[in-house]
Amino acid sequence: MRKLFLLVVLVFVAGAAARAQTLPEMRLIPAEVETTKFADNKTGSSGLAGVQTKVLYGDPAKAGFYSILLFVPANTTIQAHSHRDDRVATVVSGNWQFGYGSKFEEKALKTLTPGSVYSEPEGKDHFARTGAEAVIVQISGYGPTDTRYTDPANDPSLRKKN
Predict the structure, then answer these.
(1) 29-158, superfamily in CATH?
(2) Residue 142 burial (CB < 10 Å; 0-12/13-18/19+)?
């Protein structure tokens, strides 16, 4: 009887945990997205000056599903880096030039127009660039995430402050 009771409790707890991770209802029109705050924590971002993020759901620094908007200014180059989680992204606006590899190579870039979708597989080095216009990309993954530059000299968080 005791084993049956423990089994029932375990099933109940597991079911409650599964429900706790259910996404809430959310509907945001562009004007509502614009009024949300930029994230102070740039977890999962390039960390470059001018690049900003808005967290749509979750917390990229913690375990669980998250979704962020990445705002990248015009004429920005993001050197080769990787993340510890699998991520899927959609270009919302602008032309995003994206490539895979352990160092930035212009010939490896593919221009992704609004509506394009791409992946950032766990541990796979990739890089990107914007042209004359800013780009907005929505990125979703299962955290925690991070950003690991292939060449530490390119990591903005490690650069000495002048």
Answers:
(1) Jelly Rolls (2.60.120.10)
(2) middle
CA distances from 84 to 2, 44, 54, 159 (A): 42, 9, 20, 22
Residue 8: CA count within 13 A, CB half-sphere: 5
Backbone angles phi, psi at 16, to 5 degrees: -65, -40
47 contacts 79 by C-beta, under 8 angstroms = no
Q: Where are the domains of the chain?
A: 29-158
Please write the tens of the pLDDT for every residue from 121-130.
999 999 999 9
- Please give the Cα distance from 99 to 157 (Å, whole number): 22
Q: Is 44 helix (H, G, I), strand (E, B) or coil?
A: coil
pLDDT of residue 25: 86
Chain centroid, CA 123 distance in Å: 14
d(CA 129, CA 126): 11
Residue 156 pLDDT > 80, yes or no? Answer: yes
SS3 58: coil
